[in-house]
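Hi V.,

You were right to ask for the full record rather than a summary. Here it is.
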Amino acid sequence: MQTLDQALRALIRDEVQKALSEHMCSCEPPAPVLDPGDMVSSAEAGALLGVSVKTLANWRSSGSGPRFSKRGRVVRYQRAELEQWLTRE
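Predicted structure:
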């Protein structure tokens, strides 16, 4: 059987935890603001266009799809170009 002191401590602990959980923010950090000139990876471009990375690779090899830049093996797409390509298609 709990003593009055133990019961009060448990009650206070529960109320403090409840108050903290109600006021704690589980917010995620805001998404970065992308400038139209920002360069994005193939994975990001695919997500923006709703296609797979493999589809983008096929488009690159066939000369279709949005314009891209390549430095060595790294492929990048300009965000503004992706948006323009979407509106044309």
